[in-house]
Amino acid sequence: MTNRYRDADFDTDVIVIGGGPIGLTTACALAHHGVAFRLFEQRREPKPNSRANNLWARPQELLAAIGIRDALASRSHRIRQINTLLNGKTVEPIAIADVASPYPDVLYSGQDVIETVLAEQVQAKGGTVERGRKVVGMEQDEDGVWVSIATVGATDEHETEGPVEKLRCRYVVGADGHEGFVRKALGLDFEPEKLPNCMNRQVDARLRWRRSTDFDHLWFFYYPRGFCGVLPVWEGYHRLFFLSDDTGLPDRDPTLEEMQAIAREVTQDETLTLSDPIWLTHSRFQHGVSTGYAKGRILLAGDAGHLTLPAGGQGMNAGLHDAVGVAWRLAMVLNERAQPIVLTSYDAERGGEHRRLDKQQEQGFRNSVYRGTLTDAAMRVAASFLPNIGELIQGTNDLQQLTVGYPDSPLNEDHLGRLRDLLRRQVPHPGDRAPDADVIAADGTSTTLFAHLYNPDGHTWGWTLLAFDGQQAQALPQLRTAIAAASPWTFVRPRLVLGAALAQPDDAVVLSDLDGEAHAAYGMDGQPALVLVRPDGHIAFRAPAAEPELLLAYCNKVFGSSNE
């Protein structure tokens, strides 16, 4: 798909500022949707050190939707279990891969590996990472944005040299990190909250100890002064980090000998040996979120809008939601298939989610570092009867981000009875992730709902209309009428989910659900109903099938009068 109204007044549709994981993913997502873009990165070379290094299940689903998940998985370890020790006492392991997703295993490699793979994907999709280019100015008006780009100095990437290039685009995505240009230029900067009296010391090195060095486990140790993690990174290395009270600690990068000594003490393994370090670092902690994730035609993604804490490895993954979420919206707008509410919903959804995550991260961090003897004693007691104590310490029981949703999104509309939902457990509502379920295609082959929710019929930013018969044989006439109501919007692709009704050859695509798995996943047994799912796999709309006028009104509100 390509923008229908490109003209010579614009150099490109979208300029992406920042070539880290989020900027690169944004570029991949835009390319997936056929949107013209240019991607600028100030650094001349990728950073060699591995910072963020994990991909959770829900971000993997989103990356799969834009065709880049498998490339990342091919250069990652798969994590299936998190082991936790509390002051030397083993607590119930977290079976992290025991989740309802096609991608339950957590992927671990390293940010340097992730950036390399994503840059290769940008190039494979026809794009270019323009390195050594720095944004020095932006001006937006009603129709577009002027962006001034300079070349960084040969010896100092913070300086510029040569002429400034002035480019015209329709939209800008700022993915240039917390210290970047875009957020500050928009007047959306914030003062981070600093967490006192704590420090992180970290090393990436080869590890030998008496516990497993298999690359499918994570190890977390809660000790009197703090919290330690032992994580796999790529090429046979492990990362060890120690978040702790900073009393008596020198304010500098640690030595390998210091890291080995504290590792032996915390893990209670005097044989533990670290060698061949590739990164030794230290840091202190602060966090915060921008008051907005968009202003006019300029939108923020990832660290450009927040400063996150290292609790549960959530930060980069949250930015991946941003990248995918901003791209499908821009694709719809540039193809004149969206009302303003589609783009403005990005700020409401992702800004709100980052603020929620910030509170979760702070709680997890305080659980990990600011515990004290009384809290430790309570945790020791709780660990004996709470199987999920490890998750509680992390601040969430959903590290995999499958429950990330937008309950207050302006795109949400719900016309199904709340009392009816109360009688069903965990019924997904507008704003929630649309669940997967096994169904049977018309040719008798096994398939899943996910196979029809993302890129339906090859339409990259298409929406999917799930028409459930409620396991009632007489429901087809209502479903046909409802599908006809949405037919002017050809990117809304209907799927008949039938537990009892028998379709005809000229009906929409049929997914058989005789065992009721899909109906149960959506709480749709007993009433024919409609569920409209967005390109990112979140539910937008629910209504009874008998009221197609509600669907028609929603499509007019969100997409415009029609696409004819």
Short summary:
Its cofactor is FAD. The protein is an alpha/beta fold and 564 residues long.
3D architecture notes:
- The protein is an alpha/beta fold and 564 residues long.
- Helices cover 29% and strands 29% of the residues.
- The strands form four sheets. Strands 1, 2, 8, 9, 10, 11, 17 and 18 form an eight-stranded mixed sheet that branches.
- Strand 13 and strand 14 form a beta hairpin.
- The two termini are 16 Å apart.
- The relative contact order is 0.12.
- The model is unreliable at 1-5 (pLDDT under 50).
- Its cofactor is FAD.
- It holds the Pfam family Rng_hyd_C.
- Belongs to the PheA/TfdB FAD monooxygenase family.
- InterPro entries: FAD-bd, FAD/NAD-bd_sf, RIFMO-like, Thioredoxin-like_sf.
- GO terms for molecular function: monooxygenase activity.
Proportion of helical residues: 25-40%
The quaternary organization reads as: single chain
* Largest sheet composition: 8 strands, mixed
| Rg measurement, Å | 25 Å
How many helical stretches? 15
Low-confidence stretches: 1-5
Mean pLDDT: 91
E-strand count: 27
Observed structural traits:
RIFMO-like; eight-stranded mixed beta sheet; disordered N terminus; monooxygenase activity; alpha/beta; globular; 15 helices; 27 strands; 564 residues
